[in-house]
């Protein structure tokens, strides 16, 4: 038993030296967990910011000017006044995302407790900004009318008080940064483990392993622990330094618990990477197979869109993906401060899926080694 563990350890050290000697992969790891996370989290935003807005003011009263002046930075650019006949051309050319049209006698109708209509034209090609911006403008207009004319007809029958938990300022960077770490863990784990096996084959060192007193399971476990350790260490440093320190995203839960869950997840996805490598004949073919697998795992795991918004049959299919369970437990730990008592079902599912991938990879790897002999 101890001799087998020693062989796995030494083979893993060999993997670390191979990774060190590959500057492209080493640079990819550093870039993925630093610059890639910072630029995506700080640049790709879902909330409205610096949106171009125009106002068609056909009322020309103090109230209409107040509504126009309420569209403030940083949500919107300074409003541009245009004529009603310019709206179609301005929207077609993409000059404005929002056009607010205030009708004639608007202030008069509000004071008379009628219900005047304000038209809002939206360029919905940018869907998230369009939806959020429409809600922003609606709330701004209602608040300004009520402040200027108390008791106006725009008053709502109920007063809704909203409390946003875990992300009170609704900053998309808080969500994007953490999810980017999780997606990058998935990507690199599959790529590094599979590339390590294909590199052995392309460099001819697989024949050296065949004459050594090692088994396929030992070779696989060495690749899993070596590559998994590098990714876990890089992801942990990225979470603490880039996400928490540089981006200022608070982590609610236990980082050690998240790291422990990430170790289990690494076992699953590195085994998947080795499984894909066993059916690939070259690094190019491996890349072509990995690309759609990673896209599906990242986009449909719940890290980009909620699982509840997907068709039921697709939700059921994605339960066989380890990324689905890892995203769920990561969000529970890092956003809501969940403990082991809440995430153990996801951990159990990760272990079961990882065991299935590992068994399939061992069977495929043994067949590949027998074919090479």
TrEMBL record:
Membrane topology: Multi-pass membrane protein
Family assignment from sequence similarity: Belongs to the ABC-2 integral membrane protein family.
Localization per record: Cell membrane
Transmembrane segments: 173-198, 219-243, 255-279, 286-304, 343-363
Keywords: Cell membrane, Membrane, Transmembrane, Transmembrane helix, Transport
PANTHER family hit by this protein: INNER MEMBRANE TRANSPORT PERMEASE YHHJ, MEMBRANE COMPONENT OF ABC TRANSPORTER YHHJ-RELATED
Domain ABC transmembrane type-2: 130-368
Pfam entry (one): ABC2_membrane_3
Natural source organism: Ancylobacter amanitiformis
InterPro entries, per database record: ABC-2_transporter_component, ABC2_TM, ABC2_TM_bact-type
This protein's name: ABC-2 type transport system permease protein
Main subcellular localisation: membrane
